[in-house]
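Late entry, evening session. Most of the bench is empty. Finally got around to the prediction I had been postponing all week. Sequence below, unchanged from the version circulated by S.P.
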Amino acid sequence: MSDTFTAEQRAKLEDYLANHILPSGLGSEESACSIAAINLAINGELKDNIPPCMSSVLGRATIRLQDAMPDEMRNSDRYKTLLPNMAGTGRDNEPERLGFLMDWMWSTVLPQLQPLADEKGFGAEWSDMCRLKTDEAANAAAAAAADAKASASDYAYADAANAANAAANAADAADAYVAVYASAVYAVYASTSANADTFWNTVDPIGVLERMTYLKTGKQP
């Protein structure tokens, strides 16, 4: 498969996005996920393999985030306009793209759990994790959340502990897929809460995908 995303393939993808709904999960030819839609435009195959013309870091992040974000966000004009630009990003700037993703995980997503951590008794450890951004601090936050869970039956404790564990693994392995998982773990919790809309607007997953695509600190002009 070529590492070039051609103008013809881009036109096919734009036409597909204009006339189809992007689902959570792989989907079908009539309603394919983000990566599968790109592959359909390239070679007509319904697969979620990241094509060679696309950043692997960005592709792995996209798989996780498109599944986690609300349906209306995944099918927004903003996201569907971004997707064709994501397809041709190539793999020359992977460390920079991973840096944007890791910073988003530490500085934007995980701090959303701070009020819960404060309420449940592991606020200091959670704050240290978000400030220090290390696997050691994340392990400490995960242990504190797990200890708090031992004395209460609340799924929020498990979500917090799982997110911190995933953050520790992401920091240790510098793995984009794990980094997004750390964020998505909490996203699942937040999406079932009364504050789901506020959470998604605050963390702005499309925004981090834009930064990873255009390699800028803000949105494309």
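Two things to note before I forget:
Residues 155-173 form the longest helix (19 residues).
The CA atoms of residues 4 and 151 lie 55 Å apart.
Will write this up properly tomorrow.
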